[in-house]
Amino acid sequence: MSREFDNPARPQLLEADGIRIEFGGRQILASIYMRVQTGQIVGLLGRNGSGKSVLLQTIFGARAVADASVRVNGRRVVPAFRAPGLLNYLPQEPLLPPSLSLAKAARMLGVDIELATARFPELRPQFDRRLNELSGGSARLVQALLLLHANTAFSLFDEPFSGVMPVHVETLAEEMQRMKSRKGLLITDHRYAEVLPICDVVYLLHQGRLLQLEGDVREQLRDYGYLAS
Ligand SMILES: Nc1ncnc2c1ncn2[C@@H]1O[C@H](COP(=O)(O)OP(=O)(O)OP(=O)(O)O)[C@@H](O)[C@H]1O
To answer: Could you tell me which Gene3D superfamilies the record lists for this protein (predicted)?
Structure first.
């Protein structure tokens, strides 16, 4: 199958709408329209349980939702993960088999591990170690870096900074900014202070609706009860 999506020279637009989800009569997602362009970092914020993970799973195609429309350049791609070179997804839980070495995991994803970890010299002596031999934060960092550097048009990251120490969060955020010249990134993470400065677009998921925040984003986050007032 051809990999028509992962050409960085060709702009791509990922759109999702029509996603309605309820659990036990409680509506989680009601009215969603979301777009991510290559060259952009899009931040998705929301209170615990607001449905951010469910939304990412649905866009990726891991969760089947009737009427969900996920499109690239206007063409439906459901499930999106089947489209070669289109997108990858870091879930909240570990993605890669824990018994894989870093070097093997990188090879599996077609990533040059030297390049992907160039700004994290501490990881160099660990290339031959298995993921389950790394600390939790290092394993999270490695998985985020490998997906970030993998050759896809989009990456969806669910809490990529979770457990990662502050100095590496800063460098990872810089890497994300650098890599957006090659892809579009959709990031949800409660480390809002690190997320907001790198985002081109910020969405807030609030009571099932997706709101695009503009202007004084922090004030709106306070108004909607995401930040303390
Ligand atoms: N399989 C399921 N069955 C029932 N309820 C579910 C299921 N999956 C998710 N939920 C509910 O859907 C809601 C949204 O969950 P989700 O994990 O998407 O929240 P989130 O915004 O990612 O939260 P957090 O910030 O805590 O990670 C939660 O109330 C959760 O309990």
So the answer is: P-loop containing nucleotide triphosphate hydrolases
Q: Which ipTM did the prediction report? A: 0.97
Ligand 1 mean position, distance from CA 94 (Å): 17
| Amino acid (one-letter) located at 85 | G
Report the nearest atom of ligand 1 relative to the CA of 92. 27
DSSP structure string for 182-206 = T-EEEEE-S-HHHHGGG-SEEEEEE
**CA of 108: how far to CAs of 54, 100, 103, 120, 124, in Å?**
26, 10, 9, 20, 18
> 1 pLDDT band (50/70/90 cuts)?
very low
pLDDT class of 3 with cuts at 50, 70, 90? low
5 CA → ligand 1 middle, Å: 30
pLDDT at residue 2 greater than cutoff 80: no
Residue 167 pLDDT: 97
Please give the span between the terminal C-alpha atoms of the chain, in angstroms, as a whole number: 52
23 CB under 6 A from ligand 1? yes
- Which ranges constitute the DSSP H helices of the chain? 52-60, 102-108, 113-116, 136-149, 166-179, 192-195, 217-223
Q: Write out pLDDT tens, residues 63-104.
A: 988 888 999 999 999 899 999 999 999 999 989 999 999 999
